[in-house]
Amino acid sequence: MQVIDGAITPGTLVAFLLYSQFISQSVSALAGSYTSVKQAQGASERVFELLDKPKEYLGSEKGESIHDFESLEFKNVSFRHNESQEVFSNISFKIFKGEKVALIGPSGSGKTTLIRLMQGLFSPNEGDVVINGKTAESFNDCARRALFATVPQNVSLFRASIIDNLRLENEKLTDDEIIDACKLSNCHEFIRSLENGYQTIVGENGDTLSGGQKQRLAIARALLRGAPVIVLDEATSNLDNDNALRITELIESLPADKTVVIISHTCKSVDACDRSINISDLKGYQPEPYNSEKLPMLA
Ligand SMILES: Nc1ncnc2c1ncn2[C@@H]1O[C@H](COP(=O)(O)OP(=O)(O)O)[C@@H](O)[C@H]1O
Ligand SMILES: [Mg+2]
Q1: Is the pLDDT score of 71 beyond 80?
Q2: Nearest Cα residue to 151 out of 240, 64, 78, 214
Q3: Are 262 and 270 in contact (CB under 8 A)?
Q4: Cβ neighbours for 247, distance < 8 A, ≥ 6 positions apart
Q5: Angle between the N-to-C axes of helices 211-225 and 175-184, in degrees from 0 to 180, rounded to the nearest 10
Q6: CB of residue 153 inside a 6 A radius of ligand 1
Q7: Nearest ligand, measured from the Cα of 114
Q8: Cα 141 from Cα 119, distance rounded (Å)
Q9: How far is CA 37 from CA 31, 43, 46, 54, in A?
Q10: Which atom of ligand 1 is least distant from the CA of 265?
Q11: Beta strand 126-131 with 71-80: parallel, antiparallel or unpaired?
Q12: pLDDT single digits (tens) 49-66
């Protein structure tokens, strides 16, 4: 109207429209920047929170190191989580170097707790965990934990190549060492059948792989750890019969001096073990000297 009336020239109107567009663009960009600043602020707060956390307690460095694993014994161990009911009351058993032992008990009976007691992640309320004939406290915590390589119930894998996921154990591992462990744990064939082989990137938590494949990778990782005792905590529960059979073969193909503890809530896939210990029978169980010939199953 004002142009028609001659109050402003068409040029002024064009200039006005252009300038107002510049201003509105800048204002909306400012709003966008504000959102980004707020997001960055939130993220950096979380990063600083993490940086401020005290360093994880990695255990005492005092005490002896363990040169060679010989035996592990629970002597009259009782344990309860906090104020809760006792998980174990006065249990005793002994595992010798090179034994392949199945530890069987129903869900909630304390199998995982027992492994944590072995590793020193929990301490008994009464009784002793004894390693190589000495109470476990005489050894340093790092040496004690290094005795065990555990294949957990839930395998954690990262969004990275298969070979990098396996090399996490030790960055100095050569490709050949990794491939050998994969052959032993029956991963090699399925890895080679993937388009990019060992360089295949697995999804977050390895969700591009099947449960059985993840489980076998976790076993390869445990082997690469080079620990004298391998613990499979329900690691065979996600496996079908065919894969469980391969685990049996794997146990049989492991070096004779590797000690293996297989935890299971069923008797499935424990055929390869020298003997089985039933958690419910543990009370009053007296350890006997290890006989390398296969012992009858207790369960
Ligand atoms: N960190 C914990 N704090 C308190 N109670 C726990 C903890 N872990 C396990 N428990 C309890 O201890 C018992 C044994 O659990 P767990 O060792 O996981 O059994 P399993 O491995 O045989 O299924 C269960 O009653 C469980 O609820
Ligand atoms: Mg468990």
Answers
A1: yes
A2: 214
A3: yes
A4: 219, 232, 235, 236, 239, 269, 272
A5: 120
A6: no
A7: 1
A8: 9
A9: 10, 10, 14, 28
A10: 22
A11: antiparallel
A12: 878 876 655 556 677 777
